[in-house]
Amino acid sequence: MANSFGDRFKILTFGESHGKAVGVVIDGVKPGLEFDIETIQTELDRRRPGQSELVTPRAEEDQVEVLSGVFQGKTLGTPICLLIPNRHQDSEAYDALREVFRPGHAGYAVLKKYGIRDHRGGGRLSGRETAARVAAGALAKRELAKEKIQIIAYTKEVDGITAQAVDLEEIEKNPLRCPDKDAAKRMEERVLFYKSQGDSIGGIVEVLARNVPPGLGDPVFKKLDAEIAGALMSIGAVKAVEIGEGFQVARMRGSENNDQMNRHGFKTNHAGGILGGISTGQEIWIKIAVKPTSSIGKRQKTLDIFGREKEVSIRGRHDPCICPRIIPVAEAMVALVLYDALLRQRELEERTDTLERLRGEIDGVDYQLIELLARRNEVSSEIGEYKRRMERKIRDGKREAELMEKRMEWATDLGVDCELIRALFYQVMKASREIQKR
């Protein structure tokens, strides 16, 4: 299975919803970095269940434990393993579903693929797995923050109610994590209504990445927008991703969609901060469609593993709306993509810097060579004047042979290719004769 993600900053998540724990192994962390476990815990607390009546009441504390890669508060440069124990899983609630496929869940597809499945809460494909992503993403977010890169997500829309204002201070003040105080109240009423009906509701989450430098992303198969889309689509509840105007571009003309420029920069940002798969330095603007929670109390038709028709009503502890808890997950995935792209870009710049430095050194040496050749030509001209006054021949074959022999000795002593020096000085002495004649 594809359980790892990333290139330079690589993570591998493990664990199931009703196993002993979930966790992540992070490789590619530089040695000597300050490791602040509180930063990770803060992000996990934003994702954990039981925060309000709008989310699942499963009472997981999500206390992260560090198993490796950290010593005396600093990273060792070795793999960091973070563990998040499962302490309050209720597997008995799934006993009645042992042989039944839950509508909207992946149980049927998993069984067809592997021939075996963990029926308890979705197993490996449960949203519980995302806690590991959030833990890893917290490290990436902290490193990005050192570069002033900020990632912010919030609930944009629920049940047709759209946030009109974007007050970032408001996001963590309401259970929907909506930046519009008035819209948040109406959203909350709708979520509680569907919850009372034994149903659920989806929504739209918007993600902003600010102060991203231009130049991140690697065409053609590691385009920044492609990697962001793939990362966000890997979250189980996400069914669509838009970057910039997204699907709206299909309804626009080129003159409307193109982000024109002037001496101050881009005049608009319809592209969402990415052109040609490379960041432009503008705000990266993303929207994700979050599906309604599949586990609902309403009776639904399904099949069991024997192909018999059944009706089910899902008991257990489930989110009536996933949007509030998916927000830190979405931020984490975008952070992982951006930090990985930043590390790749730094490698490229380091290689380019080294090449340019060496090329600059060659230019300096060549300039000195040309200066010396110019001085040699001046001396050759003076020799020519002297020979004319003394009525001596311009060409002296014996002298030229001695000069060439001496230069071959110097080349041998310095470890320079003798044939290169022979060819070079053949041309130099030929040019010297012409100068002396003039």
Short summary of the structure?
With 438 residues, the protein is an alpha+beta fold.
Helix tally equals 9
What is the CATH architecture term of the largest domain?
A: 4-Layer Sandwich
Q: Biggest sheet, open or closed, and with what strands and sense?
A: 5 strands, antiparallel
Strand order of the largest sheet: 1-2-3-7-4
* Order of helical and strand elements: EEEHEEEEHHEEHEHEHEEEEEEEHHH
Total beta strands: 18
Specify the CATH class of the largest domain. Answer: Alpha Beta
Q: How would you portray this structure in words?
A:
This protein has 438 residues and is an alpha+beta fold. The chain has two domains: 4-351, Chorismate synthase, AroC fold, CATH 3.60.150.10; 362-437, Chorismate Mutase Domain, subunit A (Up-down Bundle). Helices cover 39% and strands 18% of the residues. The protein has nine helices and 18 strands. It has helices at residues 37-47, 107-114, 130-145, 181-196, 224-233, 254-257, 323-389, 397-414, 418-437; strands at residues 4-5, 10-15, 21-27, 65-68, 70-71, 74-75, 80-85, 150-158, 161-162, 203-210, 238-243, 261-262, 265-266, 274-275, 278-279, 284-290, 300-303, 309-312. A five-stranded antiparallel beta sheet has the order 1-2-3-7-4, covered by helices on one side. A five-stranded antiparallel beta sheet has the order 9-8-10-16-11. The chain is elongated. The chain starts with a strand and ends with a helix. The model has no long low-confidence stretch (mean pLDDT 93).
Please render the helix and strand layout as text.
Blueprint: E1 4-5, E2 10-15, E3 21-27, H1 37-47, E4 65-68, E5 70-71, E6 74-75, E7 80-85, H2 107-114, H3 130-145, E8 150-158, E9 161-162, H4 181-196, E10 203-210, H5 224-233, E11 238-243, H6 254-257, E12 261-262, E13 265-266, E14 274-275, E15 278-279, E16 284-290, E17 300-303, E18 309-312, H7 323-389, H8 397-414, H9 418-437
Helix pairs in contact: 1-3, 1-7, 3-7, 5-7, 7-9, 8-9
